[in-house]
Automatic annotation (TrEMBL):
This is DNA-binding domain-containing protein. Residues 9-107 form the HTH araC/xylS-type domain. InterPro entries: Homeodomain-like_sf, HTH_AraC, HTH_AraC-typ_CS, MarA-like, Tscrpt_reg_AraC-type_HTH. It comes from Paenibacillus sabinae T27. It comes from the Bacteria. The keyword Lyase does not apply. The lineage of its organism: Bacteria, Bacillati, Bacillota, Bacilli, Bacillales. The keyword Transcription regulation applies.
Length: 300
């Protein structure tokens, strides 16, 4: 039923691996075992864009990150990502981001980078494998204490939703928001992951947030539709599960960690919840970090 979700995800993986190569649809389709026409048709149906447009947007976005993070010449980056000349690269960059690559390299600012497509999720995997999956044995959530210094948080606070799926279904463009925050990833608060979600509390009501933590010294532009808030320093109880298989175990891991986080009594560790910091954080990077819920506390 979800064969083509999985196959299109393999196409995405292939594009990412060969992003700087003179790749061809024919070569990719031969490796996947389907005709070029059928690959193109299914990719467009599941992502809403042509495979050619996807490759173009990912190349220009990856090139933007190299402009931001390296001292390479614009021409060298243009050639690396398959543009015939610096002029062709400049035209493409202007079309995508409304500024020249030279101007961006000189003064980086938030821009809507194209993010990697994801069309094969844990939901699809569970449906596909439901008849042959054995019971999953998960590690219990670990609990540790982490200090996070005073910082700023740039993002969106939506009081009308309480979870990740509803957040993106409530008028926020995942591609645009995530792509813009990705362009700001070099400003991330040291020691923290990049894009971060979580919950906040306002007048007794719980909402959902998504953004990026940055240092207190950040004085750059704030993307349209987002705001910047100052978050005081605090210790946090971190309810954590180490890296796991995203497709097979994501729902079970998140549910187990969150059950512990919401039911735990911090007094057993000599703490109480810090009511002055009215937001909790999520960290979700299954194969690299794992999953964690962070709740602010103060010593009794």
């Amino acid at each position: 039923m979800y064969e083509w979700n999985e196959m299109v995800q393999l196409m995405v993986d292939w594009v990412e691996t060969n992003i700087t190569e003179s790749s061809s649809l024919l070569k990719m389709s031969e490796q996947l075992g389907y005709s070029p026409f059928y690959c193109s048709k299914q990719f467009n149906q599941l992502t809403g864009m042509t495979l050619r447009d996807y490759v173009w947007t990912r190349r220009i976005s990856r090139a933007a990150l190299e402009l931001r993070d390296t001292d390479q010449r614009v021409l060298d980056i243009a050639v690396k990502y398959g543009f015939s000349s610096q002029e062709a690269f400049t035209r493409a960059f202007n079309k995508a981001f409304q500024l020249s690559p030279a101007a961006y390299q000189k003064a980086p600012r938030p821009i809507p980078l194209a993010i990697r497509q994801e069309v094969f999720s844990p939901y699809h995997y569970l449906i596909k494998e439901r008849d042959k999956m054995s019971k999953v044995h998960l590690q219990s959530a670990e609990i540790k204490v982490e200090f996070i210094p005073t910082h700023k948080f740039i993002g969106i606070w939506d009081i009308s939703v309480t979870n990740y799926g509803d957040f993106w279904g409530n008028g926020h463009s995942c591609d645009e928001v995530s792509g813009t925050l990705e362009s700001m990833s070099n400003n991330t608060l040291p020691g923290q992951l990049g894009q971060t979600a979580g919950w906040f509390y306002q007048s007794g009501q719980k909402g959902y947030l998504y953004g990026i933590p940055v240092s207190t010294e950040y004085d750059g532009p704030i993307p349209a539709g987002m705001e910047c808030r100052d978050i005081p320093e605090s210790e946090y109880l971190v309810f954590f599960h180490p890296p796991f298989n995203y497709l097979k175990d994501n729902g079970a891991v998140m549910g187990m960690v969150e059950d512990v986080a919401w039911s735990f009594d911090p007094k057993s560790l000599g703490y109480q919840w810090d009511e002055l910091i009215k937001q909790d954080y999520q960290r979700h990077f299954p194969e690299g970090y794992g999953y964690a819920v962070l709740r602010p506390v103060k010593r009794l």
